[in-house]
Amino acid sequence: MSSTPSVEGAAEAGGRDPRPIAALVGGVLAAIGASLCCVAPLVLVSLGVGGAWIGSLTALEPYRPIFVGVTLVFLFLAWRRLYRRREQCAPGSACAVPATLRNQRRIFWVVTVFVLGLITFPWWGLLLIE
Length: 130
Hints:
Helices cover 66% and strands 0% of the residues. The protein is mainly alpha-helical.
């Protein structure tokens, strides 16, 4: 018998299931990684850092498609968890309250809009520079 409780046991005991939150956090981190090659130079320029050094910050550009793919996978997993898979909750637990699911869905869509903005920044960001 293991000394650490399982996720299913924690959900049955009234604890929170960390998987939807982990999927959202993973998606945001992957999106930030995907946009580092585009956003970092603009942030540095706005802080006054300039010169040829900024041109060397494109080292992560070849990995951008991987980061974008990981981001989309995490967003899909979070969407599936929030909309497709309905888990059974014990009466009185946090997941049994309809407001909890509604708030999770709202946070999901806010994060999704933010992440998609970061992913598409190379296209619409050019309009900001011109």
